[in-house]
Design goal:
Layout: H1 8-15, E1 20-23, E2 28-30, H2 32-41, H3 47-53, H4 58-61, H5 63-80, H6 101-132, H7 138-141
Antiparallel strand pairs: 1-2
């Protein structure tokens, strides 16, 4: 990360903020709600002002972190129109520990939901293909 670590007091202060999903001495993860609020207010307010208004003081968070978040979130929103955190689902390492039953169920639910979305997408493609396929004339149908 760098040399701007949070003190234990700062970590406790940030942990109480509703817009902070996770915080440690080295880093901070913001909630999806805050990221969406930030994007919504970005054109109207200065990024530092948005953080201040959300109860995240510049003196604790730091101007560099604010600038980096602003740049990263705007880029992510422009590329995907979503600010969801994709790190957990896209980590490069496979899990080596044994999963709990709850984790297995959650993983399977996510997989089922993904497959349902894929099936629906394929159905829509087939519908569109049928709709825009050129119709055969009646004389060509009976020539077989």
């Amino acid at each position: 990360m760098g040399k701007n670590y949070f003190t234990n007091e700062q970590v406790e202060f940030l942990r109480k903020n509703k817009y902070v999903k996770h915080v440690s001495n080295k880093g901070i993860t913001y909630s999806l709600e805050f990221k969406e609020l930030f994007i919504k207010e970005y054109g109207l307010k200065n990024p530092a002002k948005i953080f201040e208004d959300a109860g995240l003081p510049i003196s604790i968070v730091g101007q560099q972190r604010i600038n980096n978040c602003s740049k990263r979130w705007r880029k992510q929103y422009n590329e995907r129109s979503s600010l969801e955190d994709t790190r957990k689902g896209n980590s490069g390492r496979p899990i080596t520990r044994n999963l709990t039953l709850e984790e297995i169920i959650d993983k399977q639910k996510l997989q089922i939901e993904t497959l349902k979305q894929e099936v629906e997408f394929l159905r829509q493609i087939r519908r569109l293909e049928r709709r825009y396929q050129p119709k055969q004339s009646p004389s060509k149908k009976n020539t077989k």
